[in-house]
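Study this fold:
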Amino acid sequence: MRNIFLFTLIVTLVIFSACQLSETRQNDGPTHKSVEEPLIKANKQAVKAEEQQIIDFLNRYNWKMKETGSGLRYAIYHHGKGEKAKPGMIAVLKYNVKLIDGDEIYNSDNDGLKQFLIGKGGVESGLEEGILLLRVGDQAKFIIPSHLAFGLLGDQNLVPPKSTLIYDVELIALN
């Protein structure tokens, strides 16, 4: 009987100690909330700064653009008469891509026409969203905020991290 009592006591002490250790470990590091709040605040400030940069750009060049719910801005400045773009089609584009500071980074004259399957990714989500607004023959300008472009990392080539992109496109064909 004495052995059973000792065994039960030891097991109880081990379990109690493990629970205490677990609680201590959970409270040793920063709390989820203490890390999350500054990150949320920094992200909101970055989004606000990028939004102001876009507004300043639009005002500087006196561009009148529509804005989608995602934050893509667009202006169709030449209307074609062709078929409307839909998911599942292959879009073929002439394009020119600049950073918001005016530096040209990509264009179809140097890099060739851009082709992609609409709705399957593989391009910036803002470009895909913009193409769905067009018909064959349309020419448009898109301002694509970083969260719809290459985000925090850039494209690991010519697009720096957190870059707003200015696209000038012509939808040449849909296949």
Notes: The chain has a mean pLDDT of 88. Residues 2-30 form one domain. The CA atoms of residues 69 and 129 lie 11 Å apart.
